[in-house]
Amino acid sequence: MHVRTLTGGLAAACLVALSLTGGQAAAVAQGPADATLAARVLTYDAAGAAEFKSAVDRGAAIWNASVDAVELRPVTAGQRANIRVLADNGWPRALPTTLGNGTVYIGRQAVDQGYDTVRISSHELGHILGLPDRKPGPCSSLMSGSSAGVSCTNPYPNAAEKTEVEGNFSGVLAERNPAGRAELIVD
């Protein structure tokens, strides 16, 4: 995951703007000026992914390395997952409920036909991140899915797909509170 830090210049500009609004600058100046854009963390549960668990972990890692606005993490004990990943004997599919939430099925039918498990995982996670299928399409488009053919093993989103996911999850700021913990603020 990449974390972007707002520059000190922006923080200074905010302080100047607040000082012009009637003396609130002193209160703001006492708090930390460290504001960072934080990724929205989505958890996934791959316990039901059977033999595809490592492909799911790899697909999540690919998205984490590709975009800044969202981070996929394995669920921890006692935590409710945003994304549930299951293996079944059908065709791979994703059933999003809301942006960043839903169920992914890594279907053995496509794997048996020769499709790459990591590409399948990345593609289906892309649906949970708000991307539609783009068929037919070239291998360079992750969301072209099966239309790129079984020889396509590219599990990486292209620039347009990355930009779309960034847009889907933009607008989340994390500001450090006095205790040093990040607090999320949605624009």
Q: Which short descriptors sum up this protein?
A:
five-stranded mixed beta sheet; globular; 26% strand; 6 helices; 32% helix; four-stranded antiparallel beta sheet; 9 strands; alpha/beta; disordered C terminus; disordered N terminus; 187 residues
Q: How many distinct beta strands?
A: 9
Fraction of residues in helices? 25-40%
User: How confident is the prediction overall: mean pLDDT?
Assistant: 81
**Number of DSSP helical runs:** 6
Strand content: 25-35%
**Straight-line distance between termini:** 21 Å
Describe the overall structure.
32% of the residues lie in helices and 26% in strands. It contains six helices and nine strands; from the N terminus they run E-H-H-E-E-H-E-E-E-E-H-H-H-E-E. The strands form two sheets. It has a five-stranded mixed sheet. The chain has a four-stranded antiparallel sheet with strand order 1-2-8-9, with no helix packed on it. Helix 3 (53-66) crosses helix 5. The longest helix has 14 residues, at 53-66. It is globular. The model is unreliable at 1-35 and 172-187 (pLDDT under 50).
